[in-house]
Structures are given as structure tokens and as C-alpha cells.
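[09:14] KT: can someone run the structure on this one? pasting the chain below
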Amino acid sequence: MVEQLSALEMASTEKRETSMKAITLLYHDVVKGDMESSGIAGAGAALYKLDVDQFKAHLDAIAATITQPIRLVSDLIEASDLPVLLTFDDGGISAYTQIAPLLESHGWRGHFFITTARIGEPTFMNADQIRELASRGHVIGSHSHTHPSLISGLSNDVLLDEWRTSAQILSEIIDQPVTTASVPGGFFSTDVAQTAAKAGIQWLFNSEPTTQISVVAGCRIMGRYNIWRKTPAETAARLARGDMSLRLMQSLSWNAKKVAKRLGGSSYVKMRRLLLNLLRG
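[09:31] RB: done, C-alpha cells below
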């Protein structure tokens, strides 16, 4: 059953900063050569997919550089240091076949955000696999129901349905409330956060490269540092240990894209798809 916020909590829509901070890395799928074998198909999605050997190198490099275990959101309230979290978007089959076993080989657990309309499709996890990951200690969260290309452009009613439907499906699969989620495509807005909070989401990850954790309508908003297919293992390790220069570079790039997204809206999405298809050849 989806947990609901009180009317008093929902009335407070002001974005507030908290004293908590975290470094969160944003991964997607991990594949063995074939970029179409897991998760969302297409040139845009392929830019975020790592080869399995590359992903192993990332984890080894992170393990060698951090002095603390990888954390989960449930650990953050008590954390006194700058915790590191690993998240994986979309819900592709590689979450079960590749990513989770490799995380567990280091004694770590991750956050897996599922596009629930795709559950059971050939390149996505099925309900049994999702349930098993939860039983092994991984966090299962929503990545919306249908993965809209421009989620921030939806009406509040449609947004609320995206979050509620997804959270309900996942809650029924893992037999516990789903209180974490991530925003598809990086199109975050206050309405996206407010409707997620109304659907019972307590931790919402977006794609803004920041360690700051803020609060909207009682929901904690967490940024993430993007990992791309061409991201070297050393870069991932430097981000995990809080390298200020890399964090600043991602922040500058993100803010430039944020302006383009705000001005372009759906046109930005169309132009990005066209460019990616041209680059793919």
C-alpha cells in the first residue's frame, strides 16, 4: 500500500536545504558487447551502457579509493561522513544478471529504479527477478511507469498517476512500501517532486550533479553524478572520493544543459534524438 503524506506536509511546497550530503553515481545498464541486450534500445540509451569488464574496473577502482562502504538511503540519517551511493536506472535485465552480482562481490548493495511498464519485456527484469534483488538487500524504486520523454511537461494528474502506478506495482512485487524513485531523463521540476511525494516517495533522485540534499513537500531530493559509456574507471573513482574539479565540470555542463532544456522543452528532446541518430550513423 502506498504511503500518503499528510495535508500539512503537502501544503509545504518550499524547497529547503538539509544538513545531509551524499555523493551518488548514476549508472544504467551493463552489457556484454551488445548494447541492445539490456534496457532501453537506441543511440541515446547506449551512451550510458557500460561493458561488463569496464563496469568491473569501475567497481574495483571505487573500492580502492573510498574508505567507507557503499551506502543505501536508509543509512543516510545516521551518516556523519560524506556517504557514497550507487544507483541504476531503467530496470534492464543486466541489473539482475550482471550488476547485482558484481556489487555483491564487493559486499555492496545498490538502488535499482524500475520503469514498471517494461517489467517482463525481453531486455528488462521480470517480477521474480525484482523480488529476488529486494530479498538480497538491494533497494527497489520507481523510475516512473512509462518513462516519459519529458516528464516535467506532464500535467499534475498524469504525473501523480505515473508515480502512484509505478509505486503500487513495485510494492505488490516486493511486498513492502516503495519510497525511493528517480526522475527519467533528468527533467526535474517542483511538480515532479510534489507529485512523487504525494505518491509516497520519500527519496527522489534526479540527474543534477550535486552533493546537496534538499526537501520538497517532505520528499528528500538527491542529485547524482552521471556515468557514461566512455567514463574511465579512474574518473568514477575520483567522483566517488569527492574530487572537486570533476564535480565542478559536471555541474557547469549540467547547468548549461538545464537552460537549454528549459528553453527548448519538447524541441530539446527531438533535437537531441536527431543528433544522437546522426552520430550513430
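[09:33] KT: thanks! The CA atoms of residues 30 and 52 lie 5 Å apart.
[09:34] RB: yep, looked fine to me
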